[in-house]
């Protein structure tokens, strides 16, 4: 079990976080930890997830919600039902998805090493993970060593997730 106060303290010490809360919600029929954040500045879902995981104690990566404000009930408590419904409607709830294939697993490890963030989900946008032009060059170079001629610098930005990169490589290998 997590120490919620430690996770909240870590999140709130980050300069990109204005307000944060933790709760458990039923998602797709199972209880799942959820981290909701109102950012001061740009904060990506993978960055928030990584901050929450730094504290340890989670058996799985939490879902992340980025919102403009925390909805409150008349008594001041967080309105988690409204928060979840609004996040689902706006598409602003982000889930961590593990690698499903050996190639995805290999690419996750590579992306985590080059970008210095963990965990990297296979459906996370590479820009949200911290990909910039310099890191893209490093990542392309590393990919070229493992999969020569398969991924270009432009492909990183066009395909933009580990899952799409893996499908692209697999598609080329199938030819």
Number of helices: 7
What is the approximate shape?
elongated
What is the domain tally?
2
Low-pLDDT residue intervals, each spanning 5 or more residues: none
- Beta-strand percentage? 15-25%
Classify the secondary structure makeup into a structural class: alpha+beta
- CA-to-CA gap between the ends? 47 Å
Strands, count: 4
Give the C-alpha Rg.
18 Å
Q: What would CATH call the architecture of the largest domain? A: 2-Layer Sandwich
Q: H/E series, N to C?
A: HEEHEHEHHHH
Q: What kind of sheet is the major sheet?
A: 4 strands, mixed
Q: Which superfamily, in CATH terms, is the homologous superfamily of the largest domain?
A: ANL, C-terminal domain
Oligomer: single chain
Mean pLDDT: 87
CATH class of the largest domain: Alpha Beta
Strand order of the largest sheet: 1-2-3-4
Give the fraction of residues assigned to helices.
40-55%
CATH topology of the largest domain: GMP Synthetase, Chain A, domain 3
